[in-house]
Design brief:
heterodimer, A: mainly alpha, 4-stranded mixed β-sheet, two-stranded antiparallel ribbon, 24 helices, about 5% strand, B: alpha/beta, 13 helices, about 65% helix
């Protein structure tokens, strides 16, 4: 007994030793290739970057300069435009009565009346001018000795949590639907809690208010300070009163900066890992390593470890720099894993550098949109919780997140990363790494690698099961992309894409079987295989849904995506029929028929979903 | 340098791209981003300008008015978006939580002519798009209320702003600035970024896979090989940018001065591609050159954006049919820049040929 213990401890020690050895090699390799001529220039570039960003922040972004032409007949109006670079100013004092269009301008101020040229540009110019006018009158009113005469109205915002959550009311769709204001004052159904009304007087003196007002105006005017202001969190104790013109909805403007601050360096570091894997293949350094008696997982994780640690350190450093609770690192860990998993996969499948570049750009665009778009709606819409970055935003705002929210936002990232690592480890072999086949055939090979010929039936079940996180992730992406299109287009589009994705994932199982065991598939096996894939699919779907997605799945959009939760035999039959259609076409008409098979299966799937959802549509 | 051989290599590289279907991915990427356009419009432009939400709906929202009797209730009912009810605070908040109301307003008892400010509290639902819409709409009502109150107290104000009335008010918010000053310039410069990355790959690949020596045994000189690759990448720019312009025009976005825009895009992009090629030739290693190039690109972008009359700004001016006084000078600067880079590349290539 002790002997066995002893031996397993030894094995673990040995494996850890190997792991660290490989990590050390990787670090050494990285620094020897990078340092010689790169280090000095990197330092110079870094200094330049800091200098230039400071310079740019000071001078502002000049994107809209000279966009509009404005004609004025008196220099008093120059005070309104101030130094707004969007306007090119013309003197039109001798063009009285001439239309702005004839005068060659987009706007024209003529004895206190503002005229505009017809069309979108004229409207936009006028809107911008009106905003400048607002700022100008604010500047004048704010200097008034009697502040409460100039600003007689002060507003305080209070937010209450809804008893019914988003699920019951489908906030997403309410924007487009005519509201129903009651004729009489509505009565709440639940027992009423007594609330003490706010105090009648503003409990702050006018000088403090004036200062807070100036601060708010500055923030409203300068978009850049809006972003940099968040990094110095000194003014969080702002006075909660606002004047009407400064009332703005609580949209997370700063999110866009956070995403780039966090995602860009992480993505960049994962690129180095990708290149390291690719170099192993192109320079054939890898052959010696693979031939060595080291398990592929040790090899992969050994190479990955320095990058993972680097990314975590980088993210922590950023968090530290913006004075944020270190707990914000937890939502970023699955993102780091996800990036590394895809870096490994892309490094393993691309044939050339340009393919590597394109695939990684493609991947990063999609991944960034997935992380970025939902978090735009942080504090506004529950859909925002699909992105782990939203949790980072919460932490920075000081609200934190719950365990449930963490699971909800990160589980798909964890699952897909682990599955990709698994698939890559299984295929980290000489014959896979050094073949020059195309992407598609490589992916086919990888899929086929999942099939154990002796237990092919079990393999199919597993393929169905592990495809679920990917399918859900894609479907979540559709939800994020289309939830704000008008109904019912959004719903139908989401359903169509969701059905197509599901059919594609299930078809992958059949393709894997055909590739791994050519000639094995016949009509009888096809039916069995379809049923097995469908079963795996169903089990995976149910497992994951119950863990995490319940919030979304109760909304109309969720209903469109996850219809199959209802009675079990119906979705099972639907899934089986779907795979059967795709499989049969491929079996009898050859691989070229795959797109037709998928289209047909999608059509059947969509029809079923539409029928089930008919209450929402007609 | 033999132009014919350069063209042969250009064609070979373009064909290689088509064969590997990587260019398909690039186009797919563009379409993917184009697919976002609806989202971009609503999501990003809301970020750019939060009042966007105000124009979204034609809904009548119920608002509970609590507290003291003011003219605010009347102002709300005047607005087509609202219907108000005089209520008790606890009941109103209960109804708000159940979404039977869109907002609750509590008003203070300060009289309009008082020395003290009139304060009010606006209750809305947390984490909700609808609340964002309501805040934007209700702002109009509050502004009107503020005007009325300010009028009552106007004898206490010493300086008033110049009054300006508009002949035709603008109701709907347009996405004009977002489209012309951000979307179009960024879209038109995306092909440049893609091509610059591509030229690095095409050049470093030959070095790292040690195929450069094989290539040199062909009649083509090193110079011709490099320029073949560079011109393939430059050629892609007007093709992709043209595709974008067509897509934008199909979306009924008016774009002025197309030839000038294309000229500006081609020369500014060429400068970027030549910088990338120079780095690739110098380092002969993908990781290094891509790393330096992307950092340098960020620095260059930030630096140019800090100056008025940068290429992105000029494109915004041209596309929106405004005069772009700096168009010719900037174009001239970029052409000079391209010539200098061309000479630098020649020197680097010659050095590389001599050392090997």
């Amino acid at each position: 007994m002790i002997d066995i213990w002893w031996r397993s401890i030894l094995t673990i020690m040995q494996m850890l030793h190997q792991l660290f050895t490989i990590s050390r090699w990787e670090v050494k390799r990285f620094f020897t290739t990078m340092s010689r001529d790169l280090l000095p220039i990197s330092v110079i570039l870094l200094i330049l970057l800091v200098l230039v960003s400071g310079f740019a922040a000071q001078r502002g972004m000049h994107l809209q300069d000279g966009l509009y032409r404005i004609g004025i007949d008196s220099p008093t109006y120059l005070e309104i435009i101030g130094n707004d670079p969007r306007y090119t100013v013309y003197d039109t004092s001798n063009l009285y009565g001439v239309t702005p269009q004839k005068a060659g301008t987009d706007l024209k101020i003529q004895t206190g009346t503002i005229l505009r040229t017809p069309g979108e540009k004229g409207k936009a110019a006028q809107k911008s001018f009106e905003r400048d006018y607002q700022a100008y009158s604010d500047r004048i009113y704010q200097q008034q000795k009697d502040l409460f005469a100039a600003y007689p109205l002060w507003i305080q915002n209070e937010y209450v949590s809804s008893e019914l959550n988003f699920l019951a009311t489908q906030t997403g769709q309410q924007i487009g639907i005519p509201g129903q204001a009651y004729n009489e004052a509505p009565e709440p159904d639940l027992p009423v809690e007594e609330v003490t009304p706010p105090v009648s007087s503003v409990p702050v003196d006018s000088e403090e208010l004036r200062m807070s007002l100036a601060e708010q105006m500055r923030n409203d005017q300068e978009q850049v300070s809006r972003y940099t202001g968040i990094f110095s969190k000194a003014d969080t104790t702002q006075i909660p009163y606002k004047v009407p013109s400064l009332l703005s909805p609580p949209l997370p403007f700063d999110t866009i900066i956070f995403i780039f601050v966090f995602i860009f360096p992480l993505y960049f570091t994962s690129q180095f890992f990708m290149m390291s894997i690719m170099n192993e293949r192109t320079l054939r350094q890898g052959e010696a390593l693979i031939a060595a008696p080291i398990k592929p997982e040790i090899l992969i994780f050994g190479k990955m470890l320095p990058y993972a640690i680097g990314m975590i350190l980088l993210a922590s450093a950023i968090l530290f720099a913006v004075h944020t609770d270190i707990i914000a690192i937890l939502p970023l860990i699955p993102v780091i894993l996800f990036f590394l998993a895809f870096a490994l996969f892309i490094g393993m499948v691309s044939r050339s550098f340009k393919e590597l570049s394109f695939i990684s750009i493609f991947f990063s665009t999609i991944a960034t949109s997935y992380l970025f778009f939902p978090s735009l709606f942080a504090n506004v819409h529950i859909v925002s919780l699909l992105s782990p970055v939203t949790l980072v935003v919460y932490v920075i705002q000081g609200t934190g997140y719950t365990l449930m929210e963490y699971l909800y936002a990160t589980s798909l990232f964890y699952l897909t990363s682990f599955i990709i690592f698994g698939i890559c480890i299984k295929n980290f072999r000489e014959e896979q790494l050094f073949t020059e086949s195309s992407m598609v055939s490589k992916v086919r090979l990888y899929l086929a690698g999942l099939i154990q010929p002796r237990h092919w039936w079990f393999s199919l079940f597993i393929i169905g099961l592990i495809s679920i996180p990917f399918v859900l992730m894609a479907q979540m992406m559709y939800l994020v992309l289309f939830f704000n299109l008008p109904m019912p287009f959004s719903l139908i589009l989401i359903m169509l894409l969701a059905a197509f994705t599901e059919e594609m994932a299930k078809g992958a199982g059949i393709i894997a079987l055909i590739t791994a065991m050519p000639g094995f598939l016949n009509a009888r096996i096809l039916v069995i295989a379809s049923a097995l894939i469908a079963l795996g699919f169903l089990v995976g779907e149910k497992l994951l849904l119950f863990v995490t997605i319940s919030q979304i799945s109760d909304s109309v959009f969720g209903a469109a995506l996850f219809l199959s939760i209802g009675m079990l035999w119906m979705p099972f039959l639907l899934h089986t029929v779907g795979v059967c259609i795709t499989g049969a076409l491929v079996l009898y008409k050859g691989p070229k028929a795959l797109p037709f098979g998928l289209a047909l299966a999608t059509a059947v799937h969509l029809t079923y979903n539409l029928y089930m959802l008919r209450g929402w549509l007609w | 340098m033999n132009v014919h051989r350069v063209l042969t290599i250009t064609k070979k590289e373009l064909r290689g791209l088509a064969n590997e279907k990587t260019i398909l991915l690039a186009i797919l990427l563009q379409l993917f981003i184009a697919l976002f356009s609806s989202f971009l419009m609503v999501g990003l432009s809301a970020m750019y300008d939060p009042t966007t939400y105000g124009s979204i709906s034609g809904v009548k929202y119920g608002v509970g008015v609590v507290g003291n009797d003011t003219i605010l209730k009347g102002l709300l009912d005047e607005n087509p978006s609202f219907k108000s009810y005089q209520m008790n605070l606890s009941v109103a908040l209960g109804a708000l939580k159940e979404r039977k109301l869109a907002a609750v307003i509590w008003t203070s008892e300060t009289p309009p002519e008082s020395v003290d400010p009139v304060s009010l509290t606006l209750y809305t639902i947390k984490n909700d798009i609808q609340s964002a819409v309501i805040e934007v709409k209700i702002k109009e009502v509050f502004l009107k209320y503020e005007d009325i109150l300010r009028d009552v107290r106007s004898d206490r104000i010493t300086k008033h702003p110049v009054t300006i009335t508009s002949a035709r008010p603008v109701n709907s918010n347009t996405f004009y600035e977002f489209i012309y000053a951000l979307l179009i310039p960024l879209l038109l410069f995306m092909p440049a970024i893609i091509s610059a990355g591509l030229v690095i790959d095409l050049i470093t690949e030959e070095y790292q896979q040690q195929t450069i020596d094989t290539l040199r045994t062909t009649p083509a000189s090193m110079n011709e090989i490099i320029w073949g690759k560079i011109s393939a990448c430059i050629l892609l720019v007007p093709m992709e940018a043209g595709l974008w312009l067509v897509l934008l025009i199909l979306n009924r976005i008016r774009i002025g001065s197309l030839p000038e825009i294309l000229l500006q895009v081609i020369f500014a992009s060429s400068a970027l591609i030549l910088v990338a090629a120079l780095l690739a030739l110098y380092y002969q290693d993908r990781t290094k050159s891509q790393f330096i190039f992307s950092t340098a690109a960020v620095i260059l972008l930030l630096l140019t954006l800090a100056f008025p009359g940068n290429p992105l700004n000029i494109i915004a001016q041209l596309a929106s049919e405004s005069p772009a006084p700096l168009f010719w000078p900037v174009l001239f600067v970029f052409i000079c820049f391209c010539i200098i880079l061309t000479l630098l590349i020649r020197v680097t290539v010659r050095k590389a040929t001599e050392t090997s």
